[in-house]
Structures are given as C-alpha cells and as structure tokens.
Amino acid sequence: MATPCIITVAITGSVPQKSDNPAVPITIAEQVESTHAAFEAGATLAHCHVRMEDGKPTSDPERFGRLLDGLRKHCPGMIVQLSTGGRSGNGRERGGMLPLKPDMASLSTGSCNFPTRVYENAPDLVNWLAEEMIRHDVKPEVEAFDLSMIFKAVEMQKNGLMKGPIHVQFVMGVKNAMPVDRAAFEFFVATLKRLAPDATWTGAGIGRDQLTLNRWALELGGHCRTGLEDNVRWDKTTLAPSNAALVKRVAELCGEYGRRAATVTEARKLLSLPAAAQ
Ligand code: ZN
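That is the input. Now the predicted structure with zinc ion docked in place:
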C-alpha cells in the first residue's frame, strides 16, 4: 500500500498580514481555531510561528507556550512544530522556546538569500539549536533551501548532532533562493535517498507554486505542506478562504496519486515520534 501522506499546515508564518488575507490567524485564539479546522480537514502536523498583537513576529516563549497548550487541548495527537526561523528573533532567541518540548522544531542548516535580505544561519547557531533540540527531545525538521543544507544535515546526523532518521523539507519558490525546478527537485529527492535512505521528506512550494510542489511530493512518495504562511492565494484571482480549505484541497489531491492523508497515529509512526499521550 502507498505511504499515507502527512499534511503539514503552516498556519501563520512571519510575513502575511490580515491586509494580505483576513484569514491569516494572528492571535493565539485565532491560531488555535484555524489549526483545529485544518486538523479536521486532514492536517496532522502544524508548523507555527507566533505574533504580537500588532502582527509583528516574535519568538516569545510565553506566547509559544500558550499556543502549544491550546493545540494540545483542541487538536489531540496533532504533531506541533515550532519555527526557529530568522524573522522572529536574533541569534539564540530563536531557540528560546525549545524547553517547552514541542514535538518538532524547524532547523535551517545553512544560509541563503531571501527576497529582501540574507537568511543568516551561522554554523555555531545551527549547532547550538541542534544541541538544544537533542537536550529537550525535539525532532528537527531540516529546512533545506538548497542542496548544501541536505549534505549538512546528513553530516550532523553522522556527528551525533541530529538523531536519525532525519526529516527534511525541500523549500522551493522563495525569491532569490531555490526556484521551483523539477530536475533540481528530483535531484534533491535522489540525493537524500542516497545519503540517508531512512530519511523522510516534505515538499514545500512558496507562493503560486504551492500546488505544484504538493503534486510533485505526492507523485514521488513524499509528504505535503500547505497553508497561508506559504501562499495566501487560492488561485490567480482569488484569496484562499482558510488554512482548512488549503488542507482539504491537498487531502483530496492524494487520491489522484493513489495516496491518502495520514492519520495522527500514522504520521507519528512515519516520523518516528512517540505515540500521542492519551
Ligand atoms: Zn515557517
């Protein structure tokens, strides 16, 4: 039987505002409500950033803690992944929430250009974040914005800085980073399989190619990510109605590739995470 697909919903991110799409959840209450609807629609992993009341990104551990509590209560068993991304804080501030012990946290293993700035992940910060994740038993999701970041993750696993099997997300479509390119995508998948045969992976398309990456990932046996963080539009002319609608679209797409959305139990097993507390 084909591997069930883990659908990640990236609910908020650090960039989109209500003015881009009113469905972007900003407050903790909105985030819990939006994630819950996405969970009911088939998402089993929530990728989360937190914002201040004015919509500004923050890495405040207290806010992350309240979000985590809300999600654990309202979305039982759902895998919660907190972002250590660079827009929400400086240096080690980005990992200040790891003692909260979320199931997962994102970890970029290198630097690259973003639309208007450098996405800076210096080697000593990457190593520190990885050590903190091991210390607090948090599984990293490697955010691979280019090929070198895949090699770096495998090296870190060999050196004991990351527990295996590793989970990697290939991110394509960020302006000035890796474009959405089929041959490069296939090479990413083949390279990860060669270097870390037991690794799992997700494809994430940013912007208008969100659905392209959903299709490619389903076709090549990977997992999918969707959500308003990556794309606030439904198509060329309309805004996405909600995170749940984007998730439902991917869940329905699974059938075209002989796949189906994973259950929480299956998603946890696929990512070698402990079963959810009862
Ligand atoms: Zn993110």
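Residues 61-74 form the longest helix (14 residues).
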